[in-house]
Structures are given as C-alpha cells and as structure tokens.
Amino acid sequence: MEKLFARTMEVAVTLKLIAKKELTRVIVDSTVQEKAVAHPTDSKLLETARSKVVVAAKANGIELKQTYAKEGQLLGYKAGRYSHARQFKRMRKVIKRQHTIVGRLQREVARKMSTLSKAGQ
C-alpha cells in the first residue's frame, strides 16, 4: 500500500498536480462505505435492449406490429420475483421469453430496414 501511495505521489509531483511542499504532512482516510449499486441482470438487460430497439425503430420511421411494452415490463417483474423466491427454472423460462421478444423485434426491424433501403435505391 505504501509503495502504491509513494508512486502516486511521485507521479503527481512530476505532472505538477501537487507541490512537493504540500507532502510534508499527509492525512489518509481509508474508510470504505458500501454503495447501493444496482447490478445488471439478464432480465434487466433484455428489457433495456427491447426498449432501445423500439425507440430506434420509431426514430427511423419504422412502424412495428407490436412493441411488447406491457409484456416486457411484466416479464421483468416476474423474473425478479422468481429469482428472489429461488425458483430458477421459472425465472429462466421468463428470461427465455424476453430473449424471444428481443429477437423478434430485431428481426422485424432488420426486415423493414432492408425493404426501406431497397425502396430508396
């Protein structure tokens, strides 16, 4: 730890970020406090992907048959509840459904983009 701190101070002095006279007395606070960091889950990532595909399609003037907005949100809730209850088979089934929805939307957008590009040529 001391070597790391010493090297950091050397670099700071050479880059003139800190004056050498300021290093006569150094106070180090090494306390660490946990933060409530939300870790991305498969379910959350799939829901984000679904919503971004829908937004991108609308921004480019592609009209989708279905956006799965309500079902996507409900599936996200279900996956979290199943995970909390340690019902992992049910959770995986819900995540598989979310994956299917994202795939359907991506394929639909790809099809409609190819028809738009062909019509524009």
Explain what the structure shows.
This protein has 121 residues and is mainly alpha-helical. The chain has 4 helices and no strands. Helix 2 packs parallel to helix 4 and helix 3 runs antiparallel to helix 4.
Shape: elongated
- Tell me the β content: under 5%
The Cα radius of gyration reads: 25 Å
Query: Distance N terminus to C terminus?
Result: 63 Å
Helix content: 55-70%
Largest sheet: none
Tell me the series of helices and strands, N- to C-terminal. HHHH
Low-confidence stretches: none
Number of strands: 0
- Average pLDDT for all residues: 90
Structural class: mainly alpha
Q: Count up the helices.
A: 4
What secondary-structure arrangement, pairings included, does this model have?
Layout: H1 2-14, H2 42-59, H3 69-84, H4 88-120
Helix pairs in contact: 2-3, 2-4, 3-4
Short description:
With 121 residues, the protein is mainly alpha-helical. The chain has helices spanning 2-14, 42-59, 69-84, 88-120.
Describe the structure using short key phrases.
elongated, mainly alpha, 66% helix, 121 residues
